[in-house]
Specification:
Largest sheet: none
Number of helices: 11
Radius of gyration: 21 Å
Structural class: mainly alpha
Helix content: 55-70%
Oligomer: single chain
Number of domains: 1
CATH class: Mainly Alpha
Strand content: under 5%
C-alpha cells in the first residue's frame, strides 16, 4: 500500500520525474541495491530518470537516444520568453509589486536550465553532480512557490511594496525555503544524516519532508495565491477582466501537472522512449506564468502619473 511520502509510484509511472535522481543515488549506497534497481535502472551509465520506470528516455548516447530533446527545446524557448517578460516587467517602474514579481520571474527562469540538466538524461544516474543539481533545483522550486504566494500577500497592500518592511520578510523566507529544501534534498541523495536517510523499507522511496516541500507545498501555495488574488480582484478592485486571466493561469497550471503525471508514460511508450510528456508540461507551465504577467499588468499601472490616478480610484 502506498503511504504519504512514498515516491515509488511517481518514480515508476512518471517519466522524467526530477526528484527520483535523489533516490537513485540513495539506493546505490545500500547493500541490496541490485535487487532494488532493476530493468532500465540497473545500468547507471544508460539509466533514464526514475527508479525502475515503466518507460524512460535513455541517457544520451545509449540506444540512439538524444536525451529529453523535446523538453530541452521547450525549456530554451521558455527561457527566451521569460527573458522578454523580465525585461518588460523591469520597465514598469510604478507598478505595485514590481520588484517582487520580477524576482518570481527570474526564479522561474533559473529553474529552466536546471530542468534541462536534471530531467534531460544527460548526466549519469547516481552521480554526485546530478544529485547536487537536483537538490538546487528542488530548492529553487520551493522558493519559487513562496515567491508566488508572497506576491499575492503583497498585492493586499498590508505592507507597502518595495519597502524594507515588505522586502525583508520576502527575501528571508525565500532564502529559508531554498536552504531547507536544498539541504533535505542533499541529505536524501548523499546521506549526510540518518534522520533523512532511507526508510525502513527503501523500496518505497519514502521521505515525508521531501514530499512536502516538492509536492504538497507547491500545490498549497498555488491554491492560496489564486484564492487571495480572486479576493483582491473581485472583492477589493471590483473588476472581472483580471479574474479571467487568473482563472486561465490556474487552468494552464493544472493542465501542465496533468500532462506531466498522466500523459508522460503514454507519450513515452508511443514514441518508443524518444520523448515524454515533460515538454508539454513545460510549455503549459510557461504559458501559465506568462498569463500571470498579463494578470498582474491589468491590475497595476506603468508610470507615476497613472499611479496617482489609480490610488484615487482604488484605496485598499
Amino acid at each position: 500500500m502506498t503511504a504519504f511520502g512514498d515516491f515509488k509510484p511517481l518514480c515508476t509511472n512518471t517519466p522524467s520525474y526530477t526528484w527520483c535522481n535523489l533516490f537513485y543515488n540513495q539506493l546505490q549506497r545500500l547493500n541490496n541495491a541490485d535487487s532494488l534497481l532493476q530493468g532500465v535502472s540497473k545500468d547507471a551509465a544508460s539509466a533514464s530518470v526514475g527508479v525502475n520506470p515503466v518507460c524512460g528516455i535513455p541517457r544520451v548516447g545509449h540506444e540512439g537516444s538524444l536525451g529529453n530533446i523535446a523538453d530541452l527545446v521547450a525549456c530554451l524557448l521558455s527561457m527566451l520568453v521569460m527573458g522578454g517578460i523580465i525585461f518588460v516587467t523591469e520597465r514598469r517602474k510604478a507598478a505595485v509589486g514590481r520588484i517582487e514579481i520580477r524576482n518570481f520571474f527570474i526564479c522561474y527562469f533559473l529553474t529552466l536550465p536546471l530542468q534541462i540538466i536534471t530531467t534531460g538524461s544527460f548526466l549519469e544516474q547516481g552521480s554526485t553532480a546530478l544529485v547536487v543539481l537536483t537538490a538546487v533545483h528542488a530548492g529553487l522550486v520551493a522558493a519559487l512557490f513562496w515567491m508566488l504566494l508572497a506576491n499575492a500577500l503583497i498585492a493586499t497592500q498590508v505592507l507597502e511594496d518595495g519597502t524594507m518592511s515588505s522586502l525583508m520578510p520576502y527575501f528571508i523566507f525565500t532564502v529559508a525555503f531554498f536552504v531547507v529544501t536544498t539541504y533535505i534534498s542533499l541529505d536524501v541523495g548523499l546521506g549526510f544524516t540518518s534522520t533523512l536517510g532511507p526508510s525502513s523499507d527503501p523500496s518505497t522511496l519514502h521521505n515525508i519532508p521531501l514530499f512536502i516541500f516538492t509536492s504538497i507545498w507547491p500545490a498549497v501555495a498555488a491554491l492560496l495565491y489564486f484564492v487571495l488574488m480572486t479576493y483582491i480582484v473581485v472583492g477589493v478592485l471590483k473588476e472581472t477582466r483580471p479574474l479571467v486571466y487568473y482563472a486561465l493561469a490556474a487552468f494552464l497550471f493544472v493542465l501542465s501537472q496533468l500532462a506531466w503525471f498522466m500523459l508522460g508514460k503514454v507519450i513515452c511508450e508511443g514514441t518508443s522512449k524518444r520523448v515524454d510528456g515533460s515538454f508539454i508540461a513545460t510549455i503549459l507551465e510557461t504559458a501559465s506564468v506568462v498569463v500571470l504577467f498579463f494578470s498582474w499588468r491589468t491590475i497595476t499601472v506603468e508610470d507615476w502619473d497613472e499611479d496617482q490616478a489609480y490610488y484615487q480610484n482604488y484605496k485598499y
